[in-house]
Write a sequence for this structure.
C-alpha cells in the first residue's frame, strides 16, 4: 500500500547553498517520489535543515535547481508560489505554533486563509485533526505556552496537515518525544501516508523512524548525498559517516528489531 | 476532479445515500451543503451511506461523510458506511473516532469577576513592583557586603547603552524644547514689554522641571522598553529559570546592573539635557528675541540659584529607580506568548511615564514644603 510511484514531486539538482564564505551544500542532488517517506540523515551541522529550508524557499541558493511539483519556486510569481505552498505542510523543529492563538485556532488558520468554509466545518475538521494526532478535545482551547513539548509537536503536525497537503516536510518530528509517543507518531505518518497518498520528507535522527516508516533514506555528508536507498543499502554503504551511523551501538540495538516491524 | 454529489435511492426497507465524486478540501463547501440538506431518517431502520463512487477523498470529505452518517442515524442506531475502497479505509477509521467527546467549555468570567479582576490586577501590579524593589534592596545589601560580586562589566555595558548612546538624541530633543520655550516666552512676554523675564522662565522651568521630565520620559521609552523586552525574552526562553537553578539570583545578575546603570545614567543625561535646553533657549533669545548671549547669561545668573539646579538633579535618580523597577518587574511578568511580550513592553512604558509624572508631582509638593 502506498508504494512510491515514479512521479517525482521534489527534484533537487546540483544545489549549492552557503552563508558568507562557508559552503553548506555543495552540488547536492536528490529526488522525492510521490508516496514515499524519505528520511534524511546527517550529522549535526551537516546541512539537513538547510536543505529542507532551501526546498521550501526560506533560504536562497547560490546555484542549482529546486523543483517542487515541477515548478521552480525561484522563477514564478507570487500567485503560483502560494498555490504550490498550499500543497505542502511543514512541521518545524520547535513547532512554530502562533503563540497568540489557541491550538484549535492554529489548525484553523491555514483553512481560514486558503479555503472558504463554514466555521462549524472548520472547527470539526480541526478537532478531527487534533484527535488524529493524539490530542484531547480539551487541549484545543489551550494556548501553545500551556502545552508540553510533545503536545506542541502534535499540534504543529495537525497544523501542517490542516489543508491535507500532498507533501509534508518534517524537521526532526520525533525529537523530544518519548519512545512510545514517537512510535505512535511514526504509525500516524504511516496511516496518513496510505490514506492521503502523502509524500513525506523527514529530517530525522531517530533510527526507529528510519527502520519503521522510511521507505528510502538519504545520507547527507560533506554537502552532498553520500548514500541513498532503503535501509539495506544504508547498512551496506561504505562512506565512513554512514557506516558509523548505522553500525554504531545504538543502531545495532535498533537492528535487533524483529524482521516484520521493518519496512526498509 | 469532479464535484461531489449525493444521491438517495430506496429499495424496500433500505435507504441508500450514495456519495460520488471528489470529496476534498477544494469542494468542501459544496459537500457541506449537501450533507446539511440531508434530514435524519426516521421511518427506516436500515440506512446506509455508500461511498464506493468517491474518487478523491481527504480529511474534509471523510469527516463530512462521517457527519452525514451520524446526523442521519435513527436515535440509538448508527448509519453504516459501506463500499469503502481499500485505500480510504484508514481515513474513515480515523474520522470515525473524531469529535466523539465534547470539550469542556472554559468558564468565562462574569461582570463582577471582571471588575474584581481590575482591582486584583492593580494589587498584582503594586505587589510585583514592591517585590522587585525588595529583591533589589536585598541584592544591593548582599553586594554591599561583598562588593566583588557586583557585575561591574554588565553595569558598564548597560551604562554605555542607556546613557552614552542616548546622548545625541537627548541633546537634540532638549535643545529643541529649550528653544521652543524661549520662543513662546518671548512671543507672549513681548506684549507686556517683559521680554527679559523669558530668561527666568527658561532657566527655572528647565532646571527644575522640564529638563529632568523630558529626559526621564525619553529614557523610559528608550531604555525601559528594551529592559522589559530583554528580560521578558529571557523569561520566555527559560534563561531566568536556568540562572535560578544554577543557584544564581537573576535580580543580582540581570536587574541590579541595569538599574544601577539607569540611576547613574539618568542624572548625567539630565545635566546634559538641561545644559542643551539652556543653550537652545539662549540661541533663540539671541536670534529671535535679539538678546545678546552676554545679557542672557548675566540675567540667568540673577534669575536662578544653585537650588533650582539641585531640585532638578535630586529628582533624576529617583525617577531612574522607578523606570528601572517598573520595566524589570514587567519583564519578569511576561508569559509564554509573543503577544504578552508586546503587551508587557507597552505596559512598562506607559506605567513608568505615568509614575515619573506622579513622582514629579510628589516632589513638587515636597520641595515646596521644605522651601526649596
Amino acid at each position: 500500500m502506498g508504494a512510491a510511484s515514479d512521479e517525482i514531486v521534489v527534484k533537487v539538482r546540483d544545489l549549492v547553498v552557503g552563508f558568507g564564505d562557508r559552503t553548506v551544500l555543495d552540488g547536492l542532488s536528490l529526488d522525492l517520489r510521490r508516496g514515499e517517506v524519505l528520511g534524511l540523515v546527517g550529522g549535526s551541522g551537516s546541512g539537513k535543515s538547510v536543505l529542507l529550508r532551501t526546498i521550501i524557499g526560506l533560504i536562497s541558493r547560490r546555484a542549482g535547481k529546486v523543483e517542487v511539483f515541477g515548478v521552480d519556486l525561484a522563477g514564478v510569481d507570487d500567485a503560483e508560489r502560494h498555490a504550490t505552498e498550499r500543497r505542502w505542510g511543514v512541521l518545524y523543529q520547535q513547532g512554530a505554533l502562533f503563540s497568540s492563538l489557541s491550538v484549535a485556532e492554529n489548525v484553523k488558520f491555514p483553512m481560514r486563509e486558503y479555503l472558504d468554509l463554514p466555521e462549524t466545518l472548520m472547527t470539526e475538521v480541526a478537532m478531527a485533526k487534533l484527535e488524529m494526532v493524539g490530542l484531547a478535545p480539551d487541549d484545543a482551547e489551550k494556548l501553545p505556552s500551556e502545552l508540553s513539548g510533545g503536545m506542541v509537536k502534535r499540534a504543529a503536525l495537525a497544523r501542517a496537515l490542516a489543508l491535507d497537503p500532498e507533501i509534508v516536510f518534517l524537521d526532526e518530528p520525533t525529537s523530544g518525544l518519548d519512545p512510545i509517543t514517537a512510535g505512535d507518531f511514526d504509525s500516524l505518518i504511516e496511516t496518513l501516508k496510505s490514506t492521503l497518498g502523502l509524500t513525506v520528507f523527514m529530517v530525522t535522527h531517530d533510527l526507529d523512524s528510519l527502520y519503521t516508516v522510511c521507505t528510502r533514506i538519504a545520507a547527507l555528508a560533506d554537502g552532498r548525498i553520500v548514500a541513498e536507498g532503503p535501509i539495506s543499502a544504508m547498512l551496506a554503504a561504505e562512506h565512513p559517516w554512514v557506516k558509523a551511523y548505522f553500525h554504531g551501538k545504538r543502531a545495532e540495538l535498533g537492528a535487533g528489531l524483529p524482521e516484520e516491524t521493518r519496512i526498509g | 476532479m469532479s464535484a461531489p454529489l449525493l444521491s438517495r435511492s430506496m429499495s424496500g426497507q433500505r435507504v441508500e445515500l450514495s456519495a460520488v465524486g471528489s470529496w476534498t478540501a477544494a469542494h468542501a463547501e459544496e459537500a457541506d451543503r449537501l450533507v446539511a440538506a440531508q434530514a435524519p431518517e426516521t421511518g427506516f431502520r436500515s440506512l446506509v451511506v455508500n461511498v464506493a463512487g468517491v474518487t478523491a477523498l481527504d480529511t474534509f470529505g471523510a469527516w463530512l461523510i462521517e457527519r452525514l452518517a451520524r446526523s442521519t442515524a435513527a436515535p440509538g442506531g448508527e448509519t453504516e458506511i459501506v463500499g469503502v475502497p481499500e485505500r480510504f479505509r484508514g481515513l474513515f477509521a480515523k474520522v470515525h473516532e473524531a469529535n466523539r467527546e465534547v470539550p469542556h467549555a472554559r468558564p468565562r468570567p462574569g461582570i463582577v469577576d471582571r471588575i474584581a479582576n481590575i482591582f486584583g490586577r492593580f494589587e498584582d501590579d503594586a505587589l510585583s513592583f514592591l517585590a522587585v524593589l525588595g529583591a533589589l534592596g536585598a541584592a544591593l545589601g548582599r553586594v554591599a557586603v561583598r562588593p566583588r560580586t557586583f557585575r561591574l562589566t554588565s553595569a558598564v555595558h548597560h551604562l554605555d547603552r542607556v546613557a552614552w548612546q542616548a546622548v545625541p538624541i537627548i541633546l537634540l530633543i532638549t535643545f529643541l524644547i529649550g528653544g521652543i520655550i524661549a520662543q513662546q516666552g518671548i512671543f507672549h512676554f513681548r506684549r507686556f514689554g517683559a521680554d527679559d523675564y523669558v530668561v527666568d522662565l527658561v532657566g527655572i522651568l528647565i532646571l527644575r522641571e522640564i529638563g529632568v521630565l523630558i529626559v526621564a520620559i525619553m529614557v523610559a521609552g528608550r531604555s525601559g522598553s528594551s529592559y522589559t523586552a530583554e528580560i521578558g525574552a529571557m523569561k520566555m526562553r527559560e534563561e531566568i529559570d536556568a540562572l535560578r537553578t544554577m543557584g544564581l539570583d537573576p535580580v543580582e545578575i540581570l536587574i541590579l546592573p541595569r538599574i544601577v546603570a539607569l540611576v547613574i545614567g539618568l542624572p548625567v543625561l539630565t545635566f546634559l539635557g538641561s545644559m542643551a535646553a539652556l543653550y537652545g533657549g539662549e540661541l533663540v533669545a539671541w536670534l529671535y528675541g535679539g538678546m545678546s548671549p552676554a545679557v542672557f547669561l548675566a540675567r540667568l545668573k540673577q534669575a536662578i540659584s544653585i537650588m533650582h539646579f539641585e531640585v532638578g538633579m535630586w529628582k533624576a535618580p529617583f525617577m531612574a529607580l522607578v523606570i528601572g523597577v517598573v520595566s524589570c518587574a514587567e519583564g519578569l511578568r511576561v508569559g509564554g506568548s509573543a503577544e504578552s511580550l508586546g503587551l508587557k513592553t507597552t505596559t512598562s512604558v506607559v506605567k513608568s511615564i505615568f509614575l515619573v509624572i506622579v513622582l514629579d508631582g510628589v516632589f513638587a509638593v515636597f520641595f515646596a514644603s521644605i522651601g526649596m
Summary: The radius of gyration of chain B is 36 Å. The mean pLDDT of chain B is 87.
